[in-house]
Amino acid sequence: MSPTPHPLASHHLPSFIPAPGETDVLTVAMAILLVAAVLGVGVLFLRLHTLPERLAHKSHKLQFEIVAVLGLLALFTHIHLFWVAGLLLALIDIPDFTTPLRRIAGALEAMARGPAPHANEPDRIELHPTVSELQSADGETRERKRARSS
Fold it and tell me: When comparing pLDDT for 30 and 9, which is higher?
């Protein structure tokens, strides 16, 4: 290789053009910048894409699973409406209907079972006792039995 340039070549070449056989620094720098830009844009896209899911997870929303599924649907189908719906669900507080309904159901079950027996508690006065509670087998009332036993 001759160090002299070709006779038809310009005598004033820019500084970024390498000499024959040398490494092209500009091409290597642009390749590194391109890879870094693609990775950076990909990370930014995924961070923005998971924004509704992270919002719902931080605030411990009940609808977290729904928001996560909408995010996956938006990612794989490229339908942006799923992402918008997930973001709206992540920002809105849905009232908790299940806890009061469970408490009501538990109270109704306890009422259906009847009062729990209390071993250490003295006889309670009933506001509306039934006839069977007032009379024993021989027809004597509870008040007379108490008066006789004391």
Answer: 30
**141 in helix, strand or coil?**
strand
Q: What three-state secondary structure class fits 60?
A: coil
State the pLDDT at residue 134: 55
Q: What is the pLDDT of residues 37-93, one digit of tens each?
A: 999 999 999 999 999 998 888 887 778 889 999 999 998 998 999 999 999 999 888
Question: Can you give the three-state secondary structure of 67-95, one letter per residue?
Answer: HHHHHHHHHHHCCHHHHHHHHHHHHCCCC
If you search the block for the tokens 């087998």, which residue do you land on? 137
Distance (Å, rounded) from C-alpha 115 to C-alpha 109? 11
pLDDT of residue 51: 92
Domain that holds residue 36: 25-91
Q: How far is CA 144 from the centre of its chain?
A: 65
Is 64 within a domain?
A: yes
Quick check: helix, strand or coil at residue 130?
A: coil
Domain count, the chain: 1
The answer as to whether 69 is a domain residue is: yes
pLDDT of residue 32: 98
Q: Is residue 33 a part of any domain in this protein?
A: yes
> CA distances (Å), 129 to each of 28, 132, 133, in order?
96, 8, 6
Residue 16 domain-assigned (yes or no): no
